[in-house]
Prior knowledge:
This protein is α+β, with helices and mostly antiparallel strands. The chain contains three helices and four strands.
Amino acid sequence: MITLNLIEKKSKQEIIREKFLMLVRFLIIFFISTTILICLLILGAYQTLRSNLKELKEQNTFINTDRQTFQQNVGQINNKLRALETVQKETANWTEFLSQFTATVPSGVRLTDLSLTREKNLLSVAGWAAKRDDFLLFKKQLEESGLVNNLDSPLSNLLTPENISFSLTAQLNLVKPQN
Length: 179
């Protein structure tokens, strides 16, 4: 194969140099364009992430506010429950007491007045008994029931053998409610 050299050597080197410079320019422009494109993508991602971060902070603030409100409400409910529990521990089980008390009343005895005072821990009972034995049975059953202590019965309750109007006082022996 034959090579023809129609361009002189100096011009040929200049052409090669120019092609090389064009290639370098192209590469520089390509890298700058690529760098600008990557920067624009990073900037867009940064803006998106910044926006998402702002939304998350707002949501977090909202959630924290709700959580604080919820915790305050739970705290208030817990305080009320503790207060209620204290009241329940200090409250006598009147239903149980009255149920056991009525079981001590025999058939010949009728109660006309029943007064329970929790603050003074006092029981006052007034009533009528058909016979003295009915009254004595009521008094005995009440003492043995353990519901009262220091049962006080005036002697006037024992003076008549029938149709007795009586009154009693005693210290309450209340049982606290079972949990």
